[in-house]
Design a protein that fits this description.
The chain has about 375 residues and is α+β, with helices and mostly antiparallel strands. It is built from five helices and 26 strands. Strands 17, 18, 19, 20, 21, 22, 23, 24 and 25 form a nine-stranded antiparallel β-sheet that branches. α1 packs antiparallel against α5. The radius of gyration is 22 Å and the shape is elongated.
Length: about 375
């Protein structure tokens, strides 16, 4: 697994009691994900990092580097004092998930989860294989304990569980959880790493399956699998130029990524899916009016936004029919929504089936060390 591989982001909303059993749920649960071996909790004085062990895990997983805001209480609990400001608590699971080599000395025990805080606070912690979690308004009495930032390293997959009362928002790999109105004081975390070695074979096979099933024109295919662009193919040059144009539109610049297939203005690469979308306009206000029964429809901007969904975002999307047989509605767990016009070759029902199969294909390749 490369250290520079794009993370896969997944956000689940769950509630659990002190025994970590699920009480309620918000968002979409992915059956391929398992809980991380740690749980975040808090009180008015600060946050806590607790080891969550089961029959297959031993205790003493936490390894803390001393810092003035960190206090290790036994092997299974670290308390984060309030007042750290924007200095993140770095929870590094790279060793735990095998992304970094560990010592061969048997006396050093099992792989550890390393917890520390940087001596200098950087402006941007957007790193490969990492996610930022910002916990807001968790104290009702201590003005210094209104925000705590955590940086999780060594993950492609990250799902945050909390109560329905929490406000969730996200931008790329940064998740903000506002728990001001929550009585439940725990977060349940899920995650893992991706093993995508075979997707450049599996995705074209899935595309061909839908070409054979639904597309009847004998002279061409709907999905164009770029691995099939041979020199003897008269359309090879045109196909490659089109894929390069899509890469430019979706601003895909990662040198490790590679285009696999495209369908009109949809591009599938080794690291995600790019789509030409309508974006929601004044979404919150429109949805509130609709919820009150006034019959107001959500408005969408023109088809002028090219958005790339890395696997950590795509795997968490839901797809439903919208208005007619061509348009489909795409939602994420943060109340963001988009409209995609599927009139190219496939109906929205057929394309929804394809997207769901693609999600299942990728999520089955999450290694959760279970």
């Amino acid at each position: 697994m490369s250290q520079t591989q794009t993370p896969l982001l997944l956000v689940l909303a769950l509630v659990f009691s002190c025994t970590f059993s699920v009480v309620g749920q918000k968002g979409m649960s992915n059956p391929n994900l398992k809980e991380l071996p740690i749980v975040l909790s808090w009180d008015n004085d600060g946050a806590r990092i607790t080891v969550k062990t089961d029959e297959t895990q031993s205790g003493n997983l936490l390894e803390m580097t001393p810092f003035r805001y960190l206090d290790q209480i036994g092997n299974d609990l670290i308390r984060v004092a309030s007042g750290s400001g924007n200095t993140p608590v770095i929870i590094d699971l790279s060793e735990y998930y095998g992304m970094t080599e560990i010592s061969e000395n048997p006396d050093e025990g099992n792989p550890k989860i390393n917890v520390h805080m940087p001596k200098l606070t950087l402006a941007n912690y957007n790193e490969p294989n990492s996610f930022i979690l910002e916990l807001k308004n968790f104290s009702r009495t201590n003005t210094e304990a209104t925000k705590q930032i955590f940086l999780f390293r060594g993950l492609d997959v990250f799902y945050v569980g909390t109560d329905d009362c929490a406000k969730l928002s996200a931008l790329q790999n940064r998740i903000i959880v506002d728990v001001e109105k929550c009585d439940v004081k725990h977060l349940l975390l899920k995650g893992g790493i991706l093993e995508l070695e075979d997707v450049e074979e599996k995705i074209p096979n899935l595309c061909r399956k839908y070409n054979d099933r639904y597309f009847s024109q004998e002279t061409s295919d709907a999905f164009v699998c770029l691995a099939d662009c041979r020199k003897e193919d008269p359309n090879a040059y045109k196909n490659l130029r089109h894929s390069r144009s899509l890469i430019t539109k979706y601003n895909i610049t990662d040198f490790e990524d590679a285009p696999i297939s495209y369908l009109g203005n949809m591009l599938i690469t080794k690291k995600g899916v790019g789509l030409n979308l309508k974006t929601e306009f004044m979404a919150n206000a429109a949805l509130k009016k609709k919820a009150k029964g006034k019959g107001k429809k959500v408005s969408y901007n023109p088809y002028d936004r090219y958005k790339f969904f890395p696997w950590y975002e795509f795997i968490n999307l839901s797809f439903t029919k919208y208005v007619d047989e061509n348009q489909l509605l795409i939602r994420d767990p943060y109340n963001n929504s988009y409209i995609y016009n599927s009139k190219v070759h496939f109906s929205n029902v057929e394309l929804i089936q394809f997207f769901n199969e693609l999600k299942a294909l990728i999520s089955a390749r999450v290694n959760t060390k279970s």
